[in-house]
Amino acid sequence: MTIALRFSLILSVAGLTALMGCSPDDAASTVPNSTDAVSNSEEDAGAPKDAAFVLGDLIPEFNPPTKEELDNVEWMDKPVVDVYELMANRKESEVAMMTAAEALAVRNKTPEDNHNIVSAMGTLATDGEINYSAEWNRHTSADIRNTNPLMISSSAEFDVSGLLSMGLFSFDWNFTPYGNAGSLVSWQTSSDGLMDMVVMRDDLTWSDGEKITAYDVEFSYQVIMSSAVPIPAVRSGTDQLKCVKAYDERTLVYFHFEPLATNVWNINFPIIPKHKYESTIADDPTLASSPVHVELDENPVSGGAYTILKRVRGQEIILKRRDSYYMFDGQQVRQKPHFETVRFKIIENPNTALLSMKKGELEEMMLTPEQWQSQTNDDDFYKFNTKSYALEWVYYYFGWNFRSPFFKDKRVRQAMSYAFNHQELLEKHRFGMDEASTGIFHRTSPWAPEVAPSSYQQDLTKAEDLLAEAGWEDTDGDGVLDNIVEMDSNFDGESEGSRRVPFEFTILTSNRPDRIAICELLQENLDQIGIRCNVKPVEFTTLQETMLGHKFHAVFAGWGTGADPDTSENLWTTKAIDNGRNYGCYSNPEIDKLFEQGKRELDLGERRKIYQKIHLTLWEDQPYTWLYFRNAYYAFNKSLRGYNYSPRGPYNYGPGADTIFKSAEIQ
Amino acid sequence: MKETTAASENKKSPGFWRHAWLRFRRKKLSMCALIVVFLLSLVAIFSPMIAGTRPIVCKYKGNLYFPCMAYFNADWENPIFQKDRFRKRYPKNLKEKDPDSWAVWPLIFQDPYRPVRNNEWEDRPGNPFNGGEPSSLNIFGTSKGKDVLAMMVHGTRIALLVGFVSTGIAATIGIFVGAVSGYFGGWVDIIISRIIELVMCIPSIVLILALMAVIEQPTIWHMMAILGFTSWTGMARLTRGEFLKLKESEFVAAARSIGVGPFRIMFRHILPNALAPVMVPIVFGIAAAIKVEAGLSLLGFGAPPPNPSWGTILNAGMTNYTEWWQIVFPGVAIFITILAYNLIGEGLQESTDPRLADPKD
What we know:
The complex is a heterodimer of chains A (667) and B (361). With 667 residues, chain A is an alpha+beta fold. Helices cover 34% and strands 20% of the residues of chain A. Chain A contains 26 helices and 27 strands. In chain A, helix 21 links the parallel strand 21 (504-510) and strand 22 (532-538). Helix content of chain B is 61%, strand content 4%. At the A-B interface, helix 15, helix 19, helix 21 and strand 22 of A face helix 13 of B.
């Protein structure tokens, strides 16, 4: 019920969660800056500021068919599902290893303990078990800047906004897209794949009492497609639509240019109340500056399960359950949200947050691997809490920039992967808990090749041979390899031409001791074979900017997963160098072609083959040295139940946080 | 009568600095502090000989090498120790590749830049990576596998260097600017004084954070320079005051009357007399610079990795408060060093101030 919006954003907007600076484990918002950076540049390219505001000026010319014409189209039904029930069905077929009470008495020391705890604590609520008057104290490491679902970009904003907004579509832990039964009556696709028609429920209301109608969705589409509204991130994906038209209050049709496999994701965008923004947007297309909009951002009209009760900047955000969400005309029409209030406490420092957990003041937080390993094993922690972990499809990598004179040659990049001590990284730096990453898809993903490529193992001799093959040798006897390379004036301002240069480069990383230590390991390994690598820890925003400008040799960072494999188009295609997040300027016509094919292939089996090929081609090219998948490590208060993990963590899928509840037995 | 004059001629009364030294020596705390700083300097100078994984001196294939010098400058390591799969790992390779070789090793076989691995030294276990408590092999414990003691020994070099270099820069600028301002007075003084006030307004930490982000490859030297270029104002003001006072004195008038040039008067005649009050903020400045460097490293913006600054160890310890040894040992080192400099400064202040002089002297 609450998750839908968040998905739409993560999917169509951000595509992938950027983790270079701060993954969820260091909490701060990572997505925002990247989208901001993009928005700035695109804003400049947009309409001049004084030009009159035109709503939906980016929508292509199109005459939608009449209602009668639509009746003649052949329609195919698509699933409209209550994801909560879907989870309940799944849980029926799974036997919990132990009861919650038993699980809470266990200390999570072995993978088996963890398995038991995860299965026991994931059990859904039975009748009468839920304490509906409970409050949930959640942790967020950064304050939110906006509550408007169109503007959100940080992980904290995703979390808060997910509870405040409604969505028509959702997807489950397998990333299968569904129509959201909480909002839709039906969802149909035309047999040619060029249209999607949905019928909305008539019992949807905004928190101010107005009805949520198809016109709100149409209006939201028009706002997203207005050049003066600075939200290019939300626009990418939505701009693949030809038109969105509301035929009446409940009937909505999405028109596509082409029958793409990604259309099911493109129709999923955030929805804002038309009656609030319609008259004010022309005065303030930024949606965030005028007094009316600031007030609306402070006290947003919510379409989701909760509304904002109170917001203290830099301290906390308190959300309150919204009765009009699940009640309509005196009848309960949707599932009652499990918490009376949800309180997000903003605590930046992970140590402070953990201390609050130990005092019972926080009831949920993401742990760093270090905290998991050494600070959450004592009685203090287990007095109020338990912890569990699960695989998350978030991989970390060393990214090599193809514009740098050093990394144009595939053999050099492969040599880097051979030079690095992967075993020590996994065993020591990652505590032996994380899995090695062997490419862009995790081996359990349907898009990964059936036989995953075997991971690189350190082999300095092989690395030296590959480097020598590529021409890197110590010709001047100073102990550092050198070679004649092509200079690129676009890259570092050096004049074009060939020059002999020593192999000395800088790797960027965000300023955290564990990440610096991993880069230092690379530094040490490369030093042994005659390559000077300097480690430069930088602040997150600087890192973002440098990467967007492609002015770096190498970087240590990470990516989360989108629900659809097409989201990684943003990282690998040639067009994404300037308009996406292909920071390392990887360009391969074959990959470009494969992504286009992947979009258009509707047969699942065939589509899978395309992405498997992409996976293997990228692995062969080694534009990244793939390192490891980071697990999701979480601490939960003992009073909480019903949390389940997905490859996107415990919240960012359907039903996600909706199944979490506090037991009535514990007061 | 004659005898007494002869005696007084033989026993020359001590000069100002000699006098100050005599008085300084009587201050026990300050003398202890001076010894501490002296010892720290020794540790800094001989750090590669105290802790390291490279031999101090070795004979390899008929030649004599000093591989430990690589800790001062990576370029000083002979490429012969990288080639032919030697890969900068000495203990086993030396014997394997040249059975006749010999080597003198540092006191502690630990590296400030990397963990020592299993069997790197015959039959010796590698450093524990997590929860590496103090033990016989890692006396101060480990920080992400690196030996804390080795890091601290090499960190001494950074701490002292930062203190001396940045304060050296600051003192040079401060004394010169202050001297010019005080001696010439008038418009020059007004303009320079305004510039001093302007520079005082620049928060150096913010400036350092900004510049370190902009510089392509920031080194510890950049930081010292920035610290030096922002912290000279206090010394400039003091020097200016002294010069304003001394330029009116008779010896200056005398020098001027025989045609001595202004810069010769300033630096040959006035400066030695003005130096005592300026020395004190210089010594305090060293302490302040060390503190700023430790603070920046603690925030993660100090010495670029893998430089083992004391603050960097603290930073690593901050994320894991159960590993107390990463906080206590460098913390104590920073405390002692800054305290020592402050005590020296205080002692210097008291022993150079004629008003505090013991009348018996």
